[in-house]
């Protein structure tokens, strides 16, 4: 009987991409996707370390995995439990201490070694294998070819970060910046398109600092790559995420004018509206330079709308600093955003800064910010009622005969649609809207 795998993914889109690549690798090795954890011979947790809560979730899920492993053992079934991702890179020893039944663990840069590690474990040579190398080789050179899972795909073009924002673990877990060569990216994109992708979202922790080499060894920027991508036959939608405001250059801004398939929606995390806090965060932008970049982008494409990330309660943040964040939110009129309470991460400079903000104040500020962000999101969604959008259908709806798709602005749209429309782009007239989604009719 074929063995089955189950992967649970936490955190960012890069982890979603990594999990997909690991799943492809396992399928190449003969594994099949399990419907649930209890039928899986291999359970893999792909983890996130960005905030404390995300990391803690892993340990409660591992406890549950052990119970399932024991239940399966009573039925005479073996279970391998593995942990991947950023928690491993940051806390490898903790994992084996707190969950000694974990069979293997590896960081985000070494998952191409999965077949090798599984072989070691199955031959009973090793257990508790941990691999947190920052390897000299690029995992991308060792992974089997990527395949599309639907109409919409992620494609990692860059990894790691050299920015060292004082609150962030990414430079420590994902390492220094690495950009994949242009030709590798184009090859993967062609494969994704050939297997059914209409939309590609180019991924990187700091995607707009992309500097991959072309065939002649010349370093090329993200704008060059976007233009190359736009030439690909069959690609209908193009996105890139996540960008760093200070690295948005004029070439990139021009892309938002020139490239028709580049979607009019950009995630550009600002984190705070206060220059004092931005400086303490070691961000290389001010509120003024950020606003200027947004203005230039909107001048390049007047239809462009923005989304962002925010942190409230960073050490030293006063009521006045927070007011500046609220003021920026109202100036930019984000149509969508993520916001978080500052979370102390071990080993980062901000964790030991003075003037840590009490939890109660963080919570109050987060409530105020999120209320306003949801209002703005709702306002934009309501404005969409009566308009017609291209919608790429991606998943089944809750009711039979319904599909859920996305507009160019990433809003979810529920519509009555036949199953053959899955993975396709259709014109949809928006009939109603809530804060979180739209309902429409295929025309
Ligand atoms: N605490 C809270 N939020 C954080 N982020 C990153 N590190 C932290 C932290 N220590 C947020 C930032 C980033 C997003 C991915 O997560 O807003 O843009
Ligand atoms: Fe973290 Fe800052 Fe790099 Fe983003 S830019 S990954 S927040 S260090």
Can you walk me through this structure?
- This protein has 443 residues and is of the alpha/beta class.
- The protein has 3 domains: 128 residues, Methylthiotransferase, N-terminal domain (Rossmann fold), CATH 3.40.50.12160; 245 residues, Alpha-Beta Horseshoe (pyruvate-formate lyase- activating enzyme), CATH 3.80.30; 55 residues, Nucleic acid-binding proteins (OB fold (Dihydrolipoamide Acetyltransferase, E2P)), CATH 2.40.50.
- Helix content is 35%, strand content 22%.
- The protein has 12 helices and 19 strands.
- It has a 6-stranded parallel sheet with strand order 2-1-3-4-5-6, sandwiched between helices. A 5-stranded mixed β-barrel has the order 15-16-17-19-18. Strands 7-10-11 form a 3-stranded parallel sheet, with helices on both faces.
- Helix 7 packs parallel to helix 8 and helix 8 runs parallel beside helix 10.
- The N and C termini lie far apart (46 Å).
- The model has no long low-confidence stretch (mean pLDDT 95).
- Iron/sulfur cluster binds next to helix 5.
């Amino acid at each position: 009987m074929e063995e089955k795998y189950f992967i649970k993914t936490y955190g960012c889109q890069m982890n979603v991409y990594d999990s997909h690549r690991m799943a492809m690798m396992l399928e190449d090795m003969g594994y099949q996707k399990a419907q649930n954890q209890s039928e899986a011979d291999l359970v893999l947790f792909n983890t996130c370390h960005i905030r404390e809560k995300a990391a803690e979730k892993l340990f409660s899920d591992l406890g549950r995995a052990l119970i399932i492993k024991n239940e399966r053992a009573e039925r005479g079934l073996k279970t391998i439990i593995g942990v991947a991702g950023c928690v491993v890179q940051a806390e490898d020893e903790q994992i084996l201490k707190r969950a000694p039944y974990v069979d293997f663990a590896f960081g985000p840069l070494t998952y191409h070694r999965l077949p090798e590690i599984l072989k070691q474990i199955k031959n009973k040579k090793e257990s508790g294998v941990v691999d947190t190398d920052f390897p000299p080789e690029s995992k991308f050179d060792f992974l089997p070819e990527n395949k599309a899972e639907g109409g919409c795909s992620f494609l990692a073009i860059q990894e790691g970060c050299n920015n060292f924002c004082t609150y962030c673990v990414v430079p420590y877990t994902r390492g220094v910046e690495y950009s994949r060569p242009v030709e590798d990216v184009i090859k993967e994109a062609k494969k994704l398109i050939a297997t059914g992708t209409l939309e590609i979202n180019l991924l990187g922790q700091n995607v707009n600092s992309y500097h991959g080499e072309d065939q002649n060894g010349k370093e090329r920027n993200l704008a060059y790559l976007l233009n190359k991508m736009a030439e690909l036959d069959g690609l209908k939608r193009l996105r890139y995420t996540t960008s760093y405001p200070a690295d948005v250059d004029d070439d990139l801004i021009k892309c938002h004018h020139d490239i028709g398939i580049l979607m009019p929606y950009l995630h550009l995390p600002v984190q705070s509206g206060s220059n004092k806090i931005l400086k303490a965060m070691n961000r290389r932008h001010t509120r003024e330079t950020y606003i200027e970049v947004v203005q230039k982008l909107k001048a390049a494409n007047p239809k462009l709308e923005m989304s962002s990330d925010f942190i409230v309660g960073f050490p030293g943040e006063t009521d006045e600093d927070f007011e500046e964040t609220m003021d920026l939110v109202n100036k930019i009129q984000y149509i969508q955003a993520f916001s978080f309470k500052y979370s102390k991460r071990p080993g980062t400079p901000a964790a030991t800064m003075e003037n840590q903000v009490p939890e109660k104040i963080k919570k109050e500020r987060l409530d105020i910010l999120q209320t306003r962000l949801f209002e703005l999101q709702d306002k934009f969604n309501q404005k969409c009622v009566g308009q017609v959008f291209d919608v790429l259908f991606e998943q089944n709806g809750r009711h039979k005969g319904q599909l859920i798709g996305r507009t160019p602005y990433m809003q979810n749209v529920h519509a009555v649609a036949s199953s053959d429309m899955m993975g396709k782009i259709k014109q949809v007239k928006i009939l109603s809207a809530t804060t979180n989604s739209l309902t429409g009719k295929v025309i």
